[in-house]
Design a protein that fits this description.
Largest sheet: 3 strands, antiparallel
Order of helices and strands: HHEHHEHEHHEHEEHHH
Strand order of the largest sheet: 1-3-6
Protein name: FRG domain protein
Structural class: alpha+beta
Pfam families: FRG
C-alpha cells in the first residue's frame, strides 16, 4: 500500500471538495486495488469495535434516506404515507408478510421494493459497500462511508450500548415510525437498527439500517466515528473485476433471477 504524497492528497481533496458529507475524508492512500482497500480499512478500524459501511457511486450523494430527500414537507409526507398504502395491496401477495402492527417490518418491505422510507441502507461487509461504489456511474468518483453504529446509538441513550432491534427496543424505535416529514435540528437523532434478514438479498448483503428522525442527514455532529474513503473513477473497473474474482459480484449481492441472468449474459461476452 503506497502512501499518498502531499500533492496527491491535495489533489484528492480538491476532487472531493463538493462532496456534501459532513465528516472527515481519508486521503492518505489512493486505493487502486482490492489489497489497497483492505489495507486502508485495516489501518482505520479498531478490531474491537463494530463498523458499518455504505457505498456511494457518486460523490454528490448524501447520507439521507429516500423519503427525506424531497425538498418540501408536503412531498416528504406523501412519500412517507406510501408504506401504509403498500400494506393494503401487498399483504395478500407476500408469502410471509409482517404482522399487521409490525410497522418496522412493513417499512423494511417498502425499502426492499423501492418505496421511499426513513431507512438508509448499510452493510456489515466492507467489500459489499465497495461493490455498490464501483458497479455504476463509472465516470464519477465515489466513496465508502464508515460508521460505528453503537457509538451512534450511545448518543441517543447512553444506557443502551448496542445496535437496536425491534424486539428489545420497541420503545426507542416506535416514535420514529410515526414521524411526519418536518425537519428539526433539535429533533430525534439518527439511530442504528438491525433488520430482520428475511430475504436472500438482505442476508447476502449483510444488510443493516440507520433510521432517521427529524435530523435528516447523518453527519459528524451525530456520529463522531463517521468518515469516508474516496474511490477514484479511474480505478472503479479494476476494483470491480477484483471483487468479481473473489466472489463479490452481481449474482452474489443481487441474487434474484434477473440479476443471475444478467451476470451470465455478461460473463458469456456475446
Amino acid at each position: 500500500m503506497a502512501v499518498a504524497s502531499a500533492r496527491e492528497r491535495a489533489k484528492i481533496r480538491r476532487r472531493f471538495a463538493k462532496c456534501p458529507l459532513e465528516c472527515p475524508l481519508y486521503a492518505d492512500t489512493t486505493i487502486q486495488s482490492l489489497s489497497d482497500f483492505f489495507a486502508v480499512f485495516h489501518s482505520l478500524l479498531d478490531p474491537g469495535k463494530v463498523f458499518w459501511f455504505r457505498g456511494h457511486s457518486k460523490l454528490s450523494y448524501r447520507l439521507a434516506p429516500s423519503a427525506l430527500r424531497y425538498s418540501t414537507v408536503d412531498a416528504r409526507n406523501k412519500a412517507l404515507s406510501l408504506v401504509s398504502e403498500m400494506k393494503r395491496f401487498l399483504e395478500m401477495k407476500l408469502p410471509r408478510p409482517p404482522a399487521p402492527h409490525d410497522n418496522l417490518g412493513w417499512m423494511q418491505v417498502a425499502q426492499h421494493y423501492g418505496l421511499p422510507t426513513r431507512l438508509l441502507d448499510w452493510t456489515q461487509n466492507a467489500a459489499v459497500a465497495l461493490f455498490f461504489t464501483c458497479c455504476s456511474n463509472q465516470q464519477d468518483d465515489g466513496l465508502v462511508a464508515i460508521l460505528n453504529p453503537i457509538e451512534l446509538n450511545l448518543a441517543v441513550d447512553a444506557s443502551l450500548p448496542r445496535v437496536f432491534n425491534f424486539q428489545k427496543d420497541a420503545k426507542v424505535i416506535e416514535p420514529y415510525l410515526e414521524m411526519d416529514g418536518r425537519d428539526s435540528r433539535r429533533g430525534r437523532k439518527t439511530i442504528a437498527i438491525n433488520p430482520t434478514w428475511n430475504t436472500e438479498r438482505i442476508a447476502m448483503q449483510q444488510g443493516a439500517f440507520t433510521l432517521h428522525g427529524k435530523r435528516f442527514e447523518l453527519d459528524n455532529s451525530q456520529a463522531s466515528s463517521l468518515i469516508y474513503v474516496p474511490i477514484l473513477k479511474e480505478f472503479k473497473s479494476t476494483l470491480l473485476n477484483e471483487l468479481e474474482r473473489v466472489g463479490i459480484g452481481e449474482m452474489f449481492i443481487l441474487p434474484e433471477p434477473e440479476h443471475v441472468c444478467s451476470h451470465l449474459l455478461r460473463s458469456a461476452r456475446i
